[in-house]
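JOB MANIFEST
job_type = single_chain_structure
chain_count = 1
residues = 71
[input]
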Amino acid sequence: QAYRYRRDDMIAVNYSTARRSFKDYCDKVVDNDETVIVTRKKDKNVVIISEERYSEMEKAERNADGIDKLD
């Protein structure tokens, strides 16, 4: 059974659905700035985000680490 849940800028799909339509979900992530959560058994879920968003998150984490070191 395909499972798809949408909340604003987040989509949750089960593994089988994501696998079947992987290119489509990757396009949504990159073209529409979506976040895709791939649900798996035993709560071993994964999140697909764009490289751009990942880089922004990494930069924010580095900046936060730098601010912490100043304290």
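[summary]
Residues 51-70 form the longest helix (20 residues).
The helical segments are 15-20, 22-32, 51-70.
exit_status = 0
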